[in-house]
Design brief:
Number of helices: 35
Helix content: 40-55%
Number of strands: 26
Radius of gyration: 37 Å
Shape: globular
Largest sheet: 7 strands, mixed
Length: about 950
């Protein structure tokens, strides 16, 4: 059929073409045959309000309509909705009133769609008309997807961080409100992918989503996401995600229709829509500026992957994937769009309609203990700053960037180059060597605790005996990376395994190398250009060395994010033999001035690195509340929190009256939140929402917030944390030399032991009235049966807290040597403590292991019972009593409730003891508690 000439007829021609490509048969009223195809679009169908432009029939049943307008009407297409609504309510000739659920307004360039069964039906723009089989499927469902979203069950916080719980809850609210686009901003390492998978799981299970797309921009990130889907274990099911739903990563032009989750790079999706092949290696690199500068080839309708193919699209690292060449790929689909990023910019906010459902910055993640903070180490060289000059007639090497083929020639004229030209147009190996050598020599000051024992040498240790932490070096180009690797291996006197290049352009398997860097001891140092710059998870990283400058703040923050991920002690020790605890921070080594520009703020909380934490806390207690002090202290407390065990966390909460260190840190950081300050000032001064509070009003509110946030920082808390720090840390003195003053037989060791014994005795006597266990031993021996493991534990904890130098093992050794006791020291500190207390308080004449005391007392008690007039214990009773004796040896006391646990429960527990001893059971327990403690 030839094209018509007037604008409205040209629009009809384009609409007809789009309907046909979407699977519809277009007929005139005279040609009407509803059974000719599954989907039939009938032109000019008569109604009681006039002919509608198109009536849509599916399986012979009227289901919808199209109101067609010429292209010039596109700017006012929303006004046409009233006309469409009138036709949807009209009576059809021959049929009467029917449910015309699916309503379109179209110009041939713009198509808008409304599902009238949606809650609060709202028109949205779609790429093209939905296919007949799609409308048939939607009609067969009990409710449309947007209605099913309203019934999502309440999210439970189990297994979720607070930031993840808030993000999912806010996202589901956004979906219920039919907001087509939503942005989740969450700091690198805070669990964006886990958050997205949790949300996807709930949409599949509870809202009946048919298909979800997880979109990435590199194959590496696709593999990483696929692994996380396979490992994900839901809150409400013991089966993994991949056992419940089909997860498929797209690797060919075929898109399976039976999978619930598809993972794809945006490059592959673009090639699928275009019907063009794409080799897998083309997915290795993210779409860079070169790709973005291309004139976008228009995406055309693809019947195999129609716009309605996915209900929801989650766009990972969306700050890179929503512009120019790639934006049309995303906007092709009639789907909810959910963006994930740590570093949004103004374009990102704009694309997602400023619907930010989660804001969780790096600083907040650090004080929450989710991520670790960092320090900046600066390396500056003369050539980096000033460049250099090569005189004319010097013979210099010229090297091909790619092949590295060399030739030598003489300079015709002087050559001056700036520092910015290094490793691009000019290579100076001495500059690279200077930086690497400075980095190597600074490691003992960066990581003073990472000293390995003598004999643990070899690659991975520098001249100072420091184990090189997992380090990532950012290079400018592949050629620059090769130069760095060669010099690193040489300066660290290490082999090939010590330092590797991990980029997209290497002969080795980049994914395998990345896994080795993440999980194995070698390589210690990786050099990359862009592969690990963003999105890739390498938790053991403790050092980032920048040997390239970065102008984009977003890209820079993504690179910094490689080091922020936290890691527990076991995970860190897996790749660091010298690690003694969890990852507490990382070091950003700046060799190019990347951190100097104000726009390059790194998000570090440390503003006063030279001030000790104790001084910061004391200052805050005395009323110092400037932003730099509070921010620095927030970072210090968050880091320190990682070093505490469960018992120490409980002690902190006892001292503060509730909050732990992470809670205090979060409140300190929130003190200077500008948005929160303005809100609080408006509330305090009863200002309207549109009013801007004055500086004085904001300062008044800030002072109140600062006072509340610092209330828990008191002298007792400072003292306790300082005691913990002193027990945990060692000061490394490399300044003062040592010399031999004595090398002879021991003469004063006994004096030292006597001093230790005297200090221990004095401490016990000073606390004999305020620690329950000591009160019993010194004043109330008749209560000896009340001595329990809990009482001894409280005594030990008080001793450690106040006198860490009086470690029970040291005091035991002192008493054992002076009492000439040959017995081996018990392994349990509680057993050491109770024996020492009995010795000092006069219960025992000499130091006696408590196990020996209990056995002797048991023997004496049984012998006395059997030699008197009381009934003798039979063999079964003796076997049971020996179990009780052994329990008291370890736990100091037994109660009836203890009989319900091992080893008694396996023999019948308290019921069995009742069978053996009858009504004498409790009196026997009282006797044995009393006699064993004698």
């Amino acid at each position: 059929m030839g094209n018509n000439q007037n604008p409205e007829q040209r629009a009809r021609d384009r609409i007809d073409d789009q309907l046909r490509s979407s699977g519809w048969l277009v007929q005139s009223l005279a040609e009407l045959n509803p059974s000719a195809a599954r989907g039939v679009a009938v032109r000019e169908y008569p109604t009681d309000t006039g002919p509608m432009d198109y009536l849509l029939l599916v399986d012979g049943v009227p289901v919808g309509l199209i109101e067609a307008k010429r292209e010039e009407e596109g700017h006012r297409i929303s006004k046409v909705e009233e006309q469409s609504a009138r036709y949807a309510e009209a009576e059809l000739k021959h049929i009467g009133k029917v449910d015309l659920r699916f309503v379109y307004e179209a110009t041939g360039e713009i198509t808008r769609f409304t599902d009238r069964h949606d809650p609060a039906p709202r028109a949205r723009e779609v790429f093209q008309f939905h296919r007949p089989e799609t409308l048939a499927e939607w009609r067969s469902q009990t409710a449309p997807f947007r209605a099913r979203l309203q019934a999502l069950p309440v999210l439970q916080p189990d297994g979720l961080r607070d930031c993840q719980f808030r993000a999912i809850g806010n996202l589901e609210t956004s979906l219920k409100e039919n907001r087509l686009r939503a942005l989740i901003q969450m700091a690198t390492g805070a669990g964006k992918t886990f958050t997205a998978i949790t949300s996807i799981y709930r949409l599949l299970k509870h809202a009946g989503a048919k298909r979800v797309l997880f979109l990435v921009d590199t194959r590496n990130l696709g593999v990483q996401a696929e692994n996380e889907f396979h490992q994900y274990l839901p809150q409400d099911d013991n089966r993994k995600f991949s056992e419940l739903y089909t997860v498929q990563r797209l690797r060919s032009p075929h898109v399976p229709r039976d999978g619930q989750v598809c993972i794809s790079t945006i490059q592959r999706l673009y090639s699928i829509l275009k019907g063009e092949p794409l080799p897998e290696e083309a997915e290795d690199e993210p779409a860079g500026l070169d790709a973005l500068r291309k004139e976008p080839l228009p995406v055309v309708y693809n019947a195999k992957v129609p716009p309605e193919f996915f209900d929801v699209i989650v766009i990972d690292e969306c700050h890179r994937s929503i512009y120019n060449l790639w934006r049309q790929v995303i906007e092709y689909f009639d789907s909810f769009l959910v963006g994930l990023t740590a570093t949004p910019d103004n374009r990102t906010y704009g694309f997602f309609h400023q619907n930010v459902v989660s804001e969780y910055p790096l600083e907040q993640s650090v004080v929450d203990g989710v991520n670790v903070d960092h320090f900046i180490w600066r390396i500056d060289t003369r050539l980096t700053r000033e460049g250099a000059k090569i005189e004319a007639e010097e013979t210099v090497e010229h090297r091909d960037r790619l092949t590295r083929e060399q030739r030598w020639s003489q300079l015709d004229e002087d050559l001056e180059y700036a520092g910015s030209q290094l490793d691009r147009s000019v290579v100076n190996p001495n500059q690279i060597r200077t930086v690497i050598r400075a980095f190597r020599d600074a490691l003992p000051r960066m990581f003073p605790q990472r000293r390995l024992s003598e004999g643990e040498g070899g690659p991975g240790i520098n001249a100072g005996g420091i184990e090189v932490p997992k380090t990532l070096i950012f290079a400018k180009t592949d050629s620059h990376a090769d130069d760095i690797i060669s010099i690193v291996r040489e300066e660290f006197a290490a082999g090939n395994d010590f330092c590797k290049k991990i980029t997209y352009r290497i002969d080795e398997d980049p994914q395998g190398l990345l896994n080795s860097f993440r999980n194995d001891y070698h390589p210690r140092i990786a050099v990359t250009v862009d592969m690990i710059a963003t999105g890739t998870d390498v938790k053991p990283l403790e050092c980032l060395l920048f040997m390239r400058d970065v102008k984009s703040r977003n890209y820079y923050m993504q690179m910094v994010g490689r080091g922020t991920r936290s890691l527990d002690a076991d995970g860190l020790r897996q790749v660091n033999r010298s690690a003694s605890g969890p990852k507490e921070h990382f070091v950003l080594v700046d060799a190019v001035g990347v951190s100097e520009s104000k726009k390059m703020e790194t998000g570090t909380l440390e503003r006063k690195p030279s001030v000790p934490m104790k001084a910061l806390m004391q200052g805050v207690t005395m009323g110092v509340r400037d932003p730099d002090t509070l921010t620095s202290l927030a970072g210090r407390l968050a880091r320190f929190s990682k070093r505490l065990d469960d018992e120490q966390h409980q002690n902190v909460r006892r001292i503060t009256g509730g909050p732990d260190l992470n809670t205090i840190a979060a409140e300190l950081l929130a003190t200077d939140d500008p948005d929160a300050l303005r809100r609080a000032a408006r509330e305090a001064h009863q200002l309207p929402e549109s009013a801007e509070p004055s500086p004085a009003q904001i300062e008044t509110v800030r002072e109140q917030r600062a006072k509340a946030a610092t209330a828990a920082i008191t002298g007792p808390l400072t003292t306790y944390l300082e005691e913990v720090r002193q027990r945990q840390e060692q000061l490394v003195d490399e300044i003062n030399p040592d010399e031999v003053t004595t090398s002879d037989w021991e003469t004063d060791a006994d004096t030292h032991r006597e001093n230790l014994r005297q200090a221990f005795r004095e401490w016990l006597e000073a606390h004999r009235d305020d620690i329950d266990a000591l009160t019993i031993y010194y004043h109330q021996p008749h209560r000896r049966r009340e001595i329990t493991a809990r009482a001894i534990r409280e005594l030990r904890d008080a001793l450690k807290r106040e006198k860490p130098q009086l470690a029970p093992a040291r005091v035991w050794d002192a008493y054992a040597r002076l009492d000439q006791v040959p017995a081996r020291r018990p392994e349990s500190e509680l057993a050491q403590i109770i024996a020492l207390v009995r010795r000092v308080s006069g219960w025992d004449d000499k130091l006696t292991p408590y196990a020996d005391t209990v056995r002797a007392n048991f023997k004496r008690w049984v012998f006395g019972r059997h030699s008197g007039n009381q009934p003798k214990f039979n063999e079964a009773q003796m076997a049971w009593l020996e179990k009780i004796r052994d329990h008291i040896t370890a736990s100091f006391h037994i109660g009836v409730e203890d009989l319900d646990y091992a080893p008694f429960d396996a023999e019948g527990g308290r019921g069995r003891m009742w069978q053996l001893f009858g009504e004498d059971m409790e009196s026997v327990l009282d006797q044995i508690n009393d006699e064993m403690a004698a």
